[in-house]
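Open question from group meeting: does this chain pack into something compact, or does most of it stay loose? Before anyone orders reagents, we agreed to write out a predicted structure and look at it together. Recording both the input and the output here so the notebook holds the full record.
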Amino acid sequence: MNLLVTNNNDLAALQTLLQGSSQAINLAANSAVSKYLDDYAKKLQKDNEERSNQLQKTLLEALTNGD
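Structure tokens returned:
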């Protein structure tokens, strides 16, 4: 039978490694979410600017035509 022999130093090192890897995963996930939200915000801003410009044109045409 194979036995895993560890001491307190090994366990502490493994715990530190686990915490570090968890932090790295969280950082990567947070970075990905942040980039997605930034990109989506830029898209929404562009869409809103296009709609605003179109609405301004439509209103100007309506006022010019006396509607």
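Observations to bring back to the group:
The CA atoms of residues 21 and 27 lie 10 Å apart.
The chain has a mean pLDDT of 90.
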